[in-house]
Fold these 3 entries.
Entry 1:
Amino acid sequence: MGISVSDILGALESWMPSGMAQSWDNVGLQVGRPEKQVTSVLVALDLTPAIIDEARGKGANLIITHHPLFFKPLKKLSSDDLVSSMALTLAESGIAHYAIHTNIDAARNGVSFRLAHDLGLSDVEFLTSMEGSVVKLVVFVPIEANDLVRDTILAAGAGQIGRYSDCSFSNGGTGTFKPGDDTDPFIGQAAGPRESVNEVRLEVHVSRWALPRVLRAMTEAHPYEEVAYDIIPVENEYTDAGLGAIGTLASSMKLTDFLDVVSTALENPALRFAGDENATVQKIAVCGGSGSDFIGAAMKAGADAFVTADVTYHRYFDVMKPDGTFSMALINAGHYETERRTEDLLGDWLSEHFPDIAVYKTALRSGPEKTWVSRRG
Ligand SMILES: [Zn+2]
């Protein structure tokens, strides 16, 4: 049996659930048929005509990129504009395209963790956690089925608290029910008298992206025809996913020396920044790609510097104090440059999990934005 597009997507989804993506995002299969066999995959940050040509040259029939092809609905599929023309070329060439975007941004060891690692940071943690991502699932189980239902929902992804898995709580009590006509009860009989059963109230936290899978597993494992359960919103933050990362340099250094570290590590010869060149930095926040929304979070976390991209002019004033000095340095290190290692992250993971297919990381620079460093010095 060969490997299909859906085999690869299923594996990627269990590593980086698409439900972890931001609501405005458009992750997942952009073009292609899930059942199609895959012989080789090309990984790139962006989809461009040159990347499609590269895939064709290598015989790759699946392209996985970080940035999705589609953000706006198309009215036609023609060669008139870049997005629809690329979609048409993919379809004509029999190449599927899948995007794994803000879900890989939000995961532990995702884009920002990789950036932190590349800048030499240690003790790396999420800069922000995911709000509104946790529910409490309470299910009432006859005592003899408790172990089975608990083990099943935990295996399906319930019960994750921070870096601890298999977290659950059970206590016993009495449940009652009266089977109606046309029922097939586990205990008692249709249209029978009210039953009284020793049940367990089993409770777990579930992330919203694991919830559909957990509910499916729960109803399959539970012996009752009609499972009694509650999904309760809670205000807890999901702490094992988030955006941005924060960590520390092995030793403190002058901001200008750190700018050299960033420039070298990210192969970006020119950085824009705000901050005091003579300041000393050690605690560093990062966010691959457009991370201006987390400038406040980085300052609140006590970062000495925040490395991100797409910082617009007025956002630099966010790090300026009333006396004109700076709360922290804000470093604009390039969108492509802060995210390009996603190609390694994805490519290495795919090579490890699918050794029978060829996995190529693009040899091209897919991002169109470049930096000109004057030759006049
Ligand atoms: Zn990006």
Entry 2:
Amino acid sequence: MIRQPEPKPEVLSRRDEIVAALRALVPPHPLSGESVIADPLRLKPYETDGLSAYRQPPLAVVLPSTTDEVASVLRFCHANGVRVVPRGAGTSLSGGALPMADSVVIGLMRMNRILEVDFDNRLAVVEAGVTNIGITRAVEERGFFYAPDPSSQLACMIGGNVMMNSGGAHCLKYGVTANNLLGLTFVTIEGEVLRLGGAHLDAAGYDWLGLVTGSEGQLGVVTEVTVRILRGPEGARAMLAAFGSVEAAGRAVDAIIGSGIIPVALEFMDRPCIHACEAFAHAGYPLDAEAMLIIEVEGSVAEQDELLARIRDICAPLNPTSMKIAESAEQSAAIWKGRKGAFGAIGRISPDYLCMDGTIPTSELPGVLTRIGEMSRRYGLAVANVFHAGDGNLHPLIMFDANDPDSLRRAEAFGAEILKLCVEVGGCLTGEHGVGVEKRDLMGVQFTARELDQQRAIKSAFDPGWLLNPSKVFPLAQAAG
Ligand SMILES: Cc1cc2nc3c(=O)[nH]c(=O)nc-3n(C[C@H](O)[C@H](O)[C@H](O)COP(=O)(O)OP(=O)(O)OC[C@H]3O[C@@H](n4cnc5c(N)ncnc54)[C@H](O)[C@@H]3O)c2cc1C
């Protein structure tokens, strides 16, 4: 189970005073109403995030609508030694937005305005609470889109994406959030408002954007984001390649990437996942296969035809049990339908699951998947694999029963062993979900004590009192504050 830092008694005992001060700083919104939540029942939705095995109600939640309000809340918390947990949509799968009992949650969801769209310079400026899909919706009329596409894109917010450096199925070609980010408005714990980056891919001086991207709400609060928008491709088409073994599918991934082709997406599903998704989405998936790949290419029709034919030829020697090339946008959508609903589909067959997230070199896929299968038998817990195979970004979904403490304990140990294996074969602890509370105690597997000290020194430089999301990223015993 996850341990949290001891709550500060001096903060808990001043709860009413702190809530009153926050109410004075962030008055009710004319349309959305109350901006500070302290009633225990109304705090319930904020006590957990996408890692719902762990829960902790915060001291209070504050819902600012402007950068100035965020700055004044941070200034107050800094002056009073109050811990702060920034929160977007709360979809983090690593417990990044899990509160502490003595913390104030700053929810950014009311900051949801599109501030500027500049098609000539291919950028958009949006507030941190705009959903990921909301950016594409704001620009698609003119044929543009925002590329990083987490599966949670209907709900998750761009501020959370920046703080987790989120990825998605199409990041194989377009890169993750960091590769599509131009600038930020960023508020420090002292309440100072900084503009980092700007409207270009590079900015003079140190790379501040690079430093704060992926910092999991530990260095400051993002209020505005400038992103690159791209013109959509002429067209895109998917194909499905099914195999009689996980190893053969893994070798196909390796061969496609090794050939120099960069599909726009290359996704992997194993047998349990194929069955769960087919029962849920009726997408026509091959139920006789042990594993299948969804491969999408884009460009003109001629380019699509050529790339799909080359990929089919690369897969053929691996004896696929079936291959299906979509002939239309509708057929492509049908192939994607099951994949997009994969997490929900697993939720239908298991009361609870842990979604792990680690990255490995693609050449290690067959061996790693075999060892995950062995672990599954040893821990007595089912696992389904669905992941961004082209990036080597694994997402084993470990099924367990949260009502059974032993089942949760085994799931946690199983997950930790998978992540250690990722590091052992030359990969890393996270691909896109961040460290949060979930992986913080494994950071020593990836980094030396000296490297962790240096990372903590950066945290201390931004936030000397360790007030911003302090229980995340670093092993608890080593977190300051
Ligand atoms: C079904 C499902 C599918 C998912 N698929 C993907 C996927 O394909 N790819 C992927 O990368 N992730 C995925 N995720 C994980 C999650 O959606 C991402 O991590 C996302 O970026 C979190 O955004 P959020 O707005 O929900 O942030 P939250 O969960 O609210 O917060 C995430 C972290 O960012 C911090 N934070 C949030 N907003 C701010 C801000 N404005 N300023 C400072 N700190 C902030 C929080 O403190 C926390 O540490 C998935 C999650 C679910 C539930």
Entry 3:
Amino acid sequence: MVSSTIIDQLKMELPLKQETLVLSADNSTGLVLVDLVNGFCTVGAGNMAPKVPNKQIEEMVEETARLARFFCDNKLPIFAFLDSHHPDVPEPPYPPHCFAGTHESKLVPELEWLESESNVTIRLKDCIDGFLGSMEENGSNVFANWVKTNRLESVLVVGICTDICVLDFVSSALSARNRGILTPLKDVIVYSGACATYDLPLHVAETMKDAIAHPQDLMHHIALYMAQGRGAKVVSEVTFTTQL
Ligand SMILES: [Zn+2]
């Protein structure tokens, strides 16, 4: 565990401007789920899964399930990336993980029900950046088409890992927006409470060959700060307007 002094100082030196997002049933926001799969979230489910229960990951799953319920109840669009690799194609520097068709590459139990919802688009991706992972051989982009088809003005991004797949996707989406290929998209919003990353403290990493430290709270905060710096909005709370 990184000392609270370091985290407090980091938050002072790299402050996040976090707002509250209020969603209504008729808004033009889409929900993007990044890799809420067993291989990254379920205890013991593979090389990249938590080895013991992890509070940040549990809260991410819980909050994502709450958002997903609202979006499905109101038939609002959801786009879910699932990390999914061919066993013969490694993804360095990471160990083998999330082979296509296995339990690791499936949505976590709390979100499995999304597979049969008509407002949900599922995209298997075999790379870190979901925007690149949405490219088809003919040059079209499944994510960009989803934004255009649903006339989305904002996307709300949640998932894991804040500093890897979430940050890379957010950065690419912002570049694509700035380049005018995601029209009418205006905002890429990251919900801090529904993002998480993995924990590999320095004292553990030092005992492992070729491992580098990855303290969870620090990396989560730095990633949110970097997303904000690239132009994403970061929100710490998402509420819903009362249904009529
Ligand atoms: Zn992967």
